[in-house]
Amino acid sequence: MSLPLYIIYRLLDLYSWILIIWIIVSWLVAFNVINTHQRFVAILMDILNRLTEPVLRPIRRYVPLVGGLDLSPLVLLLVIHFIQYGIVHHLA
Question: How far, in Å, CA of 73 to CA of 17, rounded?
Answer without folding.
Answer: 11
